[in-house]
Amino acid sequence: MIIVGKNSKEKPLLNLLEKMATESPINFSRLTLEDLPEINKLLMSVWPKYYGKTGCPVYSDEYLRWVLGGPNSNRHILFGGRINDELVAYQSFLFRKISYCGEKLDSYLGTHLAISAQLDFRLRLYCLAQQLIFYENSIFYDDTCEIIYEIHEERKTLRDIGGKYLRDYSQIETKICSNFNQFVVTPNKLRRYLHEKDIGRKKIHVRPAYEEDSSAITELFNRIPEGPHFVRLMAEDELRHHFFGHPAHRTFVIEGQGAILAFINVYPLEMIKEDKNYEYVVIEFLILGNENIEYIALLLNEAVNFAEEIGAKGIVFENASYLEYDAYRPLGVIPTFRKMTMSVISKRKIMDYVGGFRCDIK
Predict the structure, then answer these.
(1) Closest by alpha carbon to 206, among 246, 251, 266?
(2) What is the C-alpha to C-alpha distance for residues 121 and 235, in angstroms, rounded to an integer?
(3) Can you identify the CATH homologous superfamily of domain 180-340?
(4) What mean pLDDT is reported for the chain?
(5) What is the distance between the alpha carbons of residues 167 and 173, in angstroms, rounded to a whole number?
């Protein structure tokens, strides 16, 4: 978590940024979906080099239009830095409504940071500092923004040094909200569990979801769990785009007593890993009205079926930290070696974060 302190001390970093704004060869501006070819080119020149061992997405135009588009596209902040008309820095801030301790907050998910390796360290730090969008002198200032949250891998040197500058010169303290692993689903263990428990014979109705289910899914999605959880909220039009706005994505629901009791949404994603391309199935959300291990097992099985249908190499559960591990461990959901971190920038108060988080990871 990053907190902006209130004091009258000089802020040398901001003075440095103002000076660099006049001297730097980089010109920053907001981008639009019309700039996707440039964004795509920069992402694919940077991300495979930094994430090639653990895997990085293949950023197709179709994928980026899904991520960056939708009903909130006018609120997303896509910024780029150019030198001589060449895009050398990019980051997107995707508008999100968040609930924390019962309070609803306007926030941004900071993601897809890409800075050309051709820039020296000082310019790279300058690019990184542009994310302070709730500073009034920021060219991307948004006075409604309460928090910015980011998901990234642990031990990123540039971010660590950037955090030190923010703490020492701007009285902004970096605090980690949550550390977590990515997870994978092992199909054999899951199906062995289903067979041993004979779940298939029970009258539990699992079916594909359709757009007309959006209202019921939204209601279930927006139920706020007890405790100090950090969870994303979605209006119905947002959810409809997020779950049904890409033809290759799938959502499955469990239905009973005239209501939707649980659902899972998954999508295929081509990844580059050690210079080879693989197809994976990504589980983004698995939501239950009441945590029921049989529901979890059946919904995970739909993800397994989908992976087999498209010939995917594996199934990745991006964030299972909001579920009880003892419930899903017997189902073949296991943590990987990939360590991830969620951190939050807050402009007005300390968030004493305890509990799980449920938000999308891009």
Answers:
(1) 251
(2) 41
(3) Gcn5-related N-acetyltransferase (GNAT) (3.40.630.30)
(4) 83
(5) 5
